[in-house]
Amino acid sequence: LPPRMCFSNDLRRIFVLKPGAQLFAHHLEGQDYELEQPLAEVTAGMLALRNLSDRNWYASRADGWGATVPPRQSVPLEDRMTISFGLVEGKVSLQGAASRASAMAE
């Protein structure tokens, strides 16, 4: 399975976290579809999410670590990480992605 994120406002909706993918207001703020201004972008290299919005986010891990993600900053994505975008939270799932990549390398 690819790296992905589920959203608290609709757990059936899954967003694939691939480099260059962008999140918009309908993902993060529950608004109608609007594709002009991305609010976040998945970055290449180390898989991370860059905050393109004008609001702070809050990222937290299962081990209790948490940090504010200011506008124009990125947060490296980890399995079971939760990111609060304000009205909506996203839960990151990398499970299956790393094990699949390892199996392909063998």
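Second entry:
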Amino acid sequence: RGFLKGHQRVIFGRSEIPSEVIVKSLAVLLTYLGVLFLAVIVLRFTENFELGALVFESISALSTVGLSLGQTGEFSPVGKLVLCFLMLAGRFGILAMISAGIGSVS
């Protein structure tokens, strides 16, 4: 919260968190949310299910927790591929997949 307010130093407990760590953490969070958003948009266009069910299935796949509402068997091939990508991205990590594809991420 202190970093978002523009403070130069962020103190948690008795230790200072470097701004580099905070920026990288925010990048990971925003990347995951972006991938999740894109996946839900694609699923919304390809599947005929409620938005809440699609969001649940997407978060479950990206988080690799294994929960399902039992509707994935009825997904189209495109929807199944989207969920497979989310499962792989969640397992390997999105940043690891990006860095493997484009080289090093610094």
